[in-house]
């Protein structure tokens, strides 16, 4: 029996572990594998760190291979134990803990380190890079104590860090030495469009600024620039680039330049030693994007498995990204230089931009902003080097001149025309051919394709393309296999709700047990969803499961970054009285509330209340909870209407108060905001609310599905009614229909877009169905109580309000 060769991998990151995954598939019995990782975490997707910061994913969701995977594949894994010495003559490595491991094959995948500017103050407390989980944790910790953040670097990494810090509640300024952002991926027009989008999200930019000094005492207090100007900052994030981590290789005597020098088969300068990923330098280039690193890993794995393969010849890079919700794409050489010509089209209304660059009748570069659908096909033409003479306008427009947009090539036709080697999932380097092979091999859903190939397993931006390929290449009908509400179950919302109804399931644990949850305890996505669905279906029998609610909903107040809470008492229709104002002022003074603020919904917010003071604050306010913390009716905003305004046609104040009193305490899939405007001048902004009522001569317009948040959506006109009673009935029916049909955590804007206004109208325009919906919501509301009052009157519940120890399931 042949002895297995010993393989040691130094570096537990994406490039090295992708190489190991390929080796296991090609030659599963060839090697005894040992992996050393400097971080105390299993292999995770570094690309998704920005999503963790921005609240789109948690740490568990970005793990690529969990600890069980290493065990199943008989891999010896040493976490938090970096290799400190390589002996290339004896073929052994030594770790920081003193552990020694012999090797026949050694793979260096040590990655890169963030580049820290060599300026005074760069080593102060509060100055960090943005490279790993520890950096994320430091940024989250800082956001709880400090307010002002500066990100040095306006490239992709800097913008992702800035977006995450914005989500964490910090005031963020991005400092960039260049005249425009992301100059390595975008030309100036696309960059300016991106900057406007990001400024609308709250980012601030200081361009053409060179940081000369970080001032402050032990901790950073701000930046000083070469022109003498200053910027205050409690947290400074350096995102100015990366440098290959070559120190270990250099000390071992391997040939290094900027990176560890390798040939076309990723061989370093010592026998049996290879390098892959950001630490490797191939033909003078060290790559920082994931697709080239995976291409290197594929070549190396075949070499190590004894499979014939062409060498790695370098990569033409492309970048398809979603920067803070904005799609951008670039590939090849996209700047105008002598000997090239370019075509571009810019639509400021649609927020789209396309540019192609040509040389000698070949496509050599492209930039896209807003709509990046054609990115893979353009990238394929750049790599192929084929002549595009006569097709230039077709490439620019995405369809042949003379065709209307609607008559352009269909998405399926574009997918069919793609070459098999076109990259579909840039994050994981998955080609069209790999996905097609998986589909023909039996994968019948996006989830199965993801599990098999990792396509769409990172940022998710390629999911529509993956789904399109599934439908295009599946033999026979595609199975209607939907992704589950989370990773704990393959079941979707409708299947879960139907099962709860059919089987009479009455508790979260019962649902998870009967429906065979993969994770018996569930997760932060499914537990709150199940808790809502059960309460919606069984308002009389179901006892709300507090532990399945977010922290804000458990404590009935909004938790702040410093661990204190904000308290928002209900002020019906935005109308208060001198007595209420005096009570609020007295409570704020007595409990040293640091800030009292008017909210955007015409209410007063008491910010900075200690957890142990919450019951006493509620008791002395003697007002109802404004539910500013929950997925519930938040507020009903009103203008003064006909009561005072000379333009008012109806009593908007009275209508608003009536609506708020009718639906307060109502639990909903997502938060719900209402407004009533007293005339079509719409001072209460009713047409960007979940439900808005606008007074007209002789009646009321009812608008639904609006949103004034990050993605603004104008509400759709549901209908016109004559009386206040009809407004109440239609509002009740709409809200109950939304409660019964929407996914948990789905706002009305997304729900209305998904199901369509006509489908909603078709239900609500049936008088019997409308009245039945209204009756069901009244039954639910009759069983609700004010949570503040309930806690005030219950000593056992009051005992829960001790100083905050943990913040689980925190509301976003």
TrEMBL record:
What's the source species for this entry?
Paenibacillus rhizolycopersici
Protein name according to UniProt: NAD(P)/FAD-dependent oxidoreductase
The top of its lineage is: Bacteria, Bacillati, Bacillota, Bacilli, Bacillales
Keywords of this entry = 2Fe-2S, 4Fe-4S, FAD, Flavoprotein, Heme, Iron, Iron-sulfur, Metal-binding, Nitrate assimilation, Oxidoreductase
Domain (FAD/NAD(P)-binding) ranges: 6-282
* Listed cofactors: siroheme; FAD; [2Fe-2S] cluster; [4Fe-4S] cluster
What are the residue boundaries of the BFD-like [2Fe-2S]-binding domain, all occurrences included?
Answer: 423-470, 485-534
InterPro entries the UniProt entry points to: BFD-like_2Fe2S-bd_dom, BFD-like_2Fe2S-bd_dom_sf, FAD/NAD-bd_sf, FAD/NAD-binding_dom, FAD/NAD-linked_Rdtase_dimer_sf, NasD-like, NiRdtase/SiRdtase_haem-b_fer, Nit/Sulf_reduc_fer-like_dom_sf
Q: Which residues cross the membrane?
A: none
Family statement drawn from the similarity comment of this UniProt entry: Belongs to the nitrite and sulfite reductase 4Fe-4S domain family.
Q: Which NCBIfam families match?
A: nitri_red_nirB (TIGR02374)
| PANTHER family for this protein | NITRITE REDUCTASE (NADH) LARGE SUBUNIT
């Amino acid at each position: 029996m042949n002895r297995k060769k010993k393989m040691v991998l130094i570096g537990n990151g994406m490039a090295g572990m992708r190489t190991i995954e390929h080796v296991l598939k090609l030659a599963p019995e060839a090697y005894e594998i040992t992996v050393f990782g400097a971080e105390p975490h299993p292999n995770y997707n570094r690309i998704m760190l920005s999503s963790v910061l921005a609240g789109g994913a948690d740490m568990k969701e970005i793990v690529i291979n969990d600890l069980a995977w290493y065990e199943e594949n008989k891999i010896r894994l040493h976490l938090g134990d970096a290799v400190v010495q390589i002996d290339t003559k004896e073929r052994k490595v030594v770790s920081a803990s003193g552990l020694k491991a012999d090797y026949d094959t050694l793979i260096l995948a040590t990655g890169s380190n963030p580049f820290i500017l060599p300026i005074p103050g760069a080593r102060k407390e509060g100055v960090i890079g943005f490279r790993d989980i520890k950096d994320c944790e430091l940024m989250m910790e800082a956001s709880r104590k400090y307010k002002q953040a500066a990100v040095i670097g306006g490239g992709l990494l800097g913008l992702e860090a800035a977006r995450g810090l914005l989500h964490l509640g910090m005031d963020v300024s991005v400092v960039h030495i260049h005249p425009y952002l992301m100059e390595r991926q975008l030309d100036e027009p696309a960059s300016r469009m991106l900057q406007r989008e990001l400024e609308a999200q709250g980012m601030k930019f200081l361009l053409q600024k060179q940081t000369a000094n970080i001032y402050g005492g032990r901790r950073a207090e701000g930046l000083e620039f070469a022109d003498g100007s200053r910027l205050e900052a409690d947290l400074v994030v350096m995102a100015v680039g990366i440098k290959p981590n070559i120190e270990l290789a250099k000390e071992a005597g391997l040939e290094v330049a900027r990176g560890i020098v390798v040939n076309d088969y990723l061989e370093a300068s010592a026998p049996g030693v290879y390098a892959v990923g950001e630490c490797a330098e191939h033909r003078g280039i060290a790559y920082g994007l994931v697709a080239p690193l995976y291409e290197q890993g594929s070549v190396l794995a075949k070499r190590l498995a004894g499979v014939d393969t062409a060498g790695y010849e370098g990569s033409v890079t492309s970048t398809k990204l979603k920067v803070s919700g904005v799609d951008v794409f670039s590939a090849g050489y996209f700047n105008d230089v002598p000997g090239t010509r370019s075509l571009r089209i810019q639509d400021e209304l649609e927020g789209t931009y396309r540019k192609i660059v040509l040389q000698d009748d070949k496509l050599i570069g492209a930039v896209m902003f807003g709509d990046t659908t054609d990115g893979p096909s353009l990238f394929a033409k750049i790599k192929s080097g084929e002549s595009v003479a006569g097709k230039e306008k077709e490439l620019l427009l995405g369809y042949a001149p003379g065709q209307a947009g609607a008559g352009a090539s269909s998405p399926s036709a574009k997918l069919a025309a793609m070459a098999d080697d076109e990259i579909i999932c840039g994050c994981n380097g998955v080609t069209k051919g790999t996905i097609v092979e998986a589909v023909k091999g039996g994968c019948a859903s996006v989830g199965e394709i993801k599990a098999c190939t990792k396509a769409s397993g990172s940022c998710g931006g390629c999911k529509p393309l993956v789904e399109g390929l599934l439908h295009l290449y599946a033999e026979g009908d595609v199975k209607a296999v939907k992704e589950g509400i989370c990773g704990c179950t393959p079941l979707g919302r409708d299947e879960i709700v139907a099962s709860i109804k059919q089987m009479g399931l009455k508790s979260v644990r019962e649902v998870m047990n009967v429906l065979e949850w993969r994770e018996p305890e569930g997760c932060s996505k499914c537990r709150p969803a199940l808790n809502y669905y059960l309460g919606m279906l069984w308002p009389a029998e179901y006892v709300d499961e507090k532990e399945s609610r977010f922290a804000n909903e458990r404590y009935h107040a909004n938790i702040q970054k410093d661990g204190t809470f904000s308290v928002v008492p209900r002020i019906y229709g935005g109308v208060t009285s001198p007595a209420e104002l005096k009570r609020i002022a007295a409570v704020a003074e007595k409990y040293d509330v640091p800030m009292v603020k008017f909210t955007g919904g015409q209410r007063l917010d008491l910010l900075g209340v200690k957890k142990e003071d919450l019951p006493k604050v509620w008791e002395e306010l003697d007002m109802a909870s404004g539910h500013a913390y929950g997925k519930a009716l938040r507020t009903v905003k009103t203008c003064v209407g006909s009561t005072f305004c000379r333009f008012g046609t109806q009593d908007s104040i009275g209508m608003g108060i009536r609506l708020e009193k009718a639906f307060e305490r109502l639990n909903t899939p997502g938060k719900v905001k209402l407004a009533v405007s007293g005339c079509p001048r719409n001072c209460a902004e009713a047409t960007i609310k979940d439900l808005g009522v606008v007074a007209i001569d002789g009646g009321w317009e009812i608008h639904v599905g609006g949103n004034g948040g990050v993605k603004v959506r104008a509400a759709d006109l549901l209908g016109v009614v004559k009386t206040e009673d009809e407004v109440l009935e239609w509002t009740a029916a709409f809200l109950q229909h939304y409660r019964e049909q929407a996914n948990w955590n789905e706002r009305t804007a997304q729900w209305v877009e998904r199901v369509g206004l006509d489908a909603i109208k078709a239900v609500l325009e049936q008088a019997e169905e409308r009245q039945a919906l209204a009756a069901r919501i009244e039954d639910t509301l009759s069983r609700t109580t004010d949570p503040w009052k309930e806690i005030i009157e219950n000593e056992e519940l009051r005992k829960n309000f001790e100083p905050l120890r943990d913040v689980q399931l925190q509301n976003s």
